[in-house]
Amino acid sequence: MPTIDVNNTPVHYTTQGSGPSLLFVHGTAGNGETNFGHLREHFTDRYTVITPDFSGSGQTPLHADELSLDELVDQVTGAARAVTDEPFDIVGFSLGAVVAAAAAAKHPGLVRRLILINGWARNDDPRQQLAVDLWRRLPAIDADAFAAYSALLIFSPPFLAGFGSDGVKATVAGITAEVGTLRQIELDHHVDIRDRLESITARTLVIGSSRDALIPVEHSREIHEAVKGSDYAELESGHMVLFEKPAELVEMLAEFLDRD
After folding, report:
1. Closest-CA residue to 115 (of 207, 249, 38, 36)
2. What is the model's pLDDT at position 132?
3. 205, 214, 203, 219: which is closest to 241 by C-alpha?
4. Which residues make Cβ contacts (< 8 Å) with residue 142, sequence separation at least 6?
5. Which of 50, 83, 92, 127 is least crowded, fewest Cβ atoms below 10 Å from its Cβ?
6. pLDDT for 136-167, tens place per residue?
7. How many C-beta atoms surround the C-beta of residue 255 within 10 A?
8. Distance of alpha carbon 41 from alpha carbon 253, whole angstroms
9. How far apart are CA 88 and CA 176, in angstroms?
10. How many whole angstroms separate alpha carbon 60 and alpha carbon 72?
């Protein structure tokens, strides 16, 4: 896995395929491989797919007690610039959608097309504050409760129930509160990009999930309203639409990205 130094942080990334560059930006507690490894093959025949791990995920380390949005923007755009000198497309999921939107606002000349999946722009929604505040506090109280609560937040009820009792237990057992995850949740809790959205000039598609308990779909609708000329679509899914509706999501991404 290649590495690019960004502000003294070694940022790890993968690159596969050929053609115009397509940057995938992962969400909280994920990394490039876990979030997009199963989707990448649908694009590598016509795009150079870049999947960085930002600080606290994968092989990219933390170098501070607190993450900043601009730090993550620099890391993911740094990975893209290590691969191409041309404008590139970005697909961002969850926290990655927030980072991708901020990157498009900061570097309008670099981002050609932008897709934001289950993102948000603000953190003054009282229900959102309650949900994320409990999520970030639970690891210090009860690691098992953190894992169970995470599963309830990120998957829709029918999808999680479909795992069966043993599958649910295995899923919960695989969720851990790593230090990097906790730093990312802290950023989730206070990040706000409302003042940046009007600076986005890239052609944009916003995708929301109608059964998302972590980031309610209203947040995606608000981003769509704020980004001038953006397209909007919804899928009936929980937050982890990457796994609940992968075929439908790939179809949406491809239709938008391949459009002239």
Report:
1. 207
2. 92
3. 214
4. none
5. 127
6. 999 999 999 999 999 999 999 999 999 999 99
7. 12
8. 13
9. 33
10. 11
Phi, psi (degrees; rounded to nearest 5) at 253: -60, -45
- Show which residues are catalytic: 94, 212, 239
- List all residues 6 or more positions away from 52 whose beta carbon is below 8 Å from its beta carbon: 11, 12, 13, 23, 25, 32, 60, 75, 76, 79, 80
Cα→Cα distances 40→46, 100, 111, 117, Å: 11, 18, 19, 16
Give percent helix, percent strand, percent coil of the chain, each to the nearest 5. Answer: 45, 20, 35
Which residues, 6 or more positions from 80, have their beta carbon under 8 angstroms from its beta carbon?
21, 23, 50, 52, 88, 90, 110
Q: Distance from first CA to last CA of the chain, Å, rounded?
A: 32
In the chain, the amino acid numbered 189 is: H
């960085």: which residue's tokens?
52
Residue 14 C-alpha from the chain's centroid: 16
Is residue 107 a contact partner of residue 77, using CB atoms and an 8 Å limit? yes
Q: Where are the extended beta strands (E) located within 107-242?
A: 111-117, 203-209, 231-235
Say if residues 152 and 158 touch (Cβ distance below 8 Å). no
- Going by their DSSP bridges, the two strands 111-117 and 9-17 should be labelled as unpaired
1 pLDDT tier (thresholds 50, 70, 90):
confident
Reduced to 3 states (helix: H, G, I; strand: E, B; else coil), residue 137 is: helix
Which domains are seen in the chain, by residue range?
3-123+192-257 (3.40.50.1820), 126-173 (no CATH)
Strand partners, 234: 208
Task: Give the residue from 40, 67, 41, 62 showing the smallest Cα distance to 51.
Answer: 40
pLDDT of residue 64: 75
